[in-house]
Amino acid sequence: MENENLQPEEIIETEQLAEEPQTAENECENCEVESAGDNWEEKYNDLNDKHLRLVAEFDNYRKRTMREKTDLLKSAGESILINILPIIDDFERGLKAMDESTEKEGIELIYNKFKSFLTQSGVKEIETENQPFNVDLHEAITTIPAPTEELKGKIIDCISKGYILNDKVIRFPKVVVGE
């Protein structure tokens, strides 16, 4: 409809222009646009990848700090409990040294209260009697010749008890191992 107002010469020129085949110059301009589009796509993919990695890194950081906080809460009173353990040892030695009397009952009462306090706090005693020696759980003070063949590599005597707090050894038992 626009062609109705145009002169016949002008119509031919615009039709010729429309029919002109694309030259190498025209193709090259299209290439630049396509390559620029590829470049944007690469930048987008690169930024998207960086974003995803940053989100994953932050998520790992958040999980790690939460895990550290829970570990800290589990072992918050560890230093207090470690300082109480020698008192338990002294009570046990005192009980062994005492004769049967009413005084022993009072000390046993205090000892039992301390033991229940430690149990409620998550402290467990490490078993040593006739147990095989385990480097991860026991500290060998010395070795002696085993009285029998079956006691070789096993704990013969416990000098000082060891304790575990929430699956973590807070004091290794000092033991004598049969050789």
Summarize the model shown.
The chain is an alpha+beta fold. The protein has 4 helices and 6 strands. Helix 3 runs antiparallel to helix 4.
Q: What's the CATH first level of the largest domain? A: Mainly Beta
Q: From the 3D structure, determine the CATH topology of the largest domain.
A: Nucleotide Exchange Factor Grpe, Chain A, domain 2
| Second-tier CATH architecture of the largest domain | Roll
Number of domains: 2
Which regions are unreliable across 5 or more consecutive residues at pLDDT < 50?
none
Number of strands: 6
What profile does the largest beta sheet have?
3 strands, antiparallel
Q: Rg to the nearest angstrom?
A: 41 Å
**What percent of the residues sit in helical stretches (DSSP H or I)?**
55-70%
Overall mean pLDDT: 80
As an assembly, this protein is single chain
The portion of residues forming beta strands comes to: 15-25%
- Structural category: alpha+beta
Total count of helical runs of at least 4 residues: 4
CATH homologous superfamily grouping of the largest domain: Head domain of nucleotide exchange factor GrpE
Distance between the termini: 111 Å
Order of strands, main sheet, comes to: 1-4-5
Name the helix and strand elements from N-terminus to C-terminus, one letter apiece. HHHHEEEEEE
Overall 3D form: elongated
